[in-house]
Amino acid sequence: MPNPIRTGAVAALCLALLLLTACSRPPPAEEPVRAVKLMTIAAGTVATQPELAGDVRARVESRIGFRVGGKLVRRQVEVGQRVRPGQVLAQLDVQDYALATDAVRAQLQVAVTNRDLAEADLKRYRELREQNFISSAELDRRESTWKAANAQVEQARAQLATQGNQSAYATLRSDVAGVVVGVEAEPGQVVGAGTPIVRIALDGPRDVVFAIAEDRLADIAIGTAVELRRWASNLRLSGQVREIGAVADPVTRTYQVKASIPSATAPALGSTMAVVPVALSAKGAPAIKVPTSALKQQGQGSAVWVFDAASSSVRTQPVQVLAADGNEVVVASGLTPGMQVVIAGVHVLAEGQKVSVFKPRSTP
To answer: What is the pTM of this model?
Structure first.
């Protein structure tokens, strides 16, 4: 007769096994084999070239201001207006200078009167000396008085001439020919001596000014040829680097470069130009290129997925990107011709993952 206790224990154990089997998670489904689009690496050439933005400026710009201070009452020029030498640009209030001129003129009259009086005294004392009525010392004192009075006259005349110049300086005239490219003061403003009122771009040589990054500064030098293209038209010019800035811009960390262009064919001031330094252009040079869609981030650098035909899997290959070439990038190292790299879906792959090669449907 079976033992009822043993039978119950066996039944309980079987029931527990059934419950554990029913509660366990099902095995994970196998990851599907992803289809990838491949590209076979081949040697090519660089098709594009770097273009920098620049603008046309006059080689010399003069900031013209008054030689005296005062209140600006009139400005006769505006931005874009051509000026010629001697043309009136602006005027100051001359009332104070007129009063000062009258004061100096009055001082001159006083000095002339004193000189005439001293001269008359000297004449009389000379006659008295000839008759031995006075001593030589007394005559010398009268001569000294006349000389001092004469010097005061000369001083007053010089002051009057200086004050006349001050009054003339209240009218600002251009001493160059060019175009007004900036206005820095308005009527009613009190300006000091030397404060710029207008900025004039002088007629003559023209430059195209552009900025270059700090890491490419060593590739360009004075005398380097540049190709120029105007954005608003198909005008093309050739120029040479004339000046390279010695200090980087504190914000952009770029260096200002000036390229000279022929003034006879130069576009209007302020025209935007596309600048291609020949020394920075690599157009036509041999290079290995991959689409930008093939790149993925790996640490501080870039990498691509390389397809292994033997195992039908992918592996990571670090690459060094040199530059962009349209929708492609130029790879400096890491790839050799003949390799097959993934160019689509790179962000959903894993190291050693099995993949299949995507084959587009044929068009009937």
So the answer is: 0.60
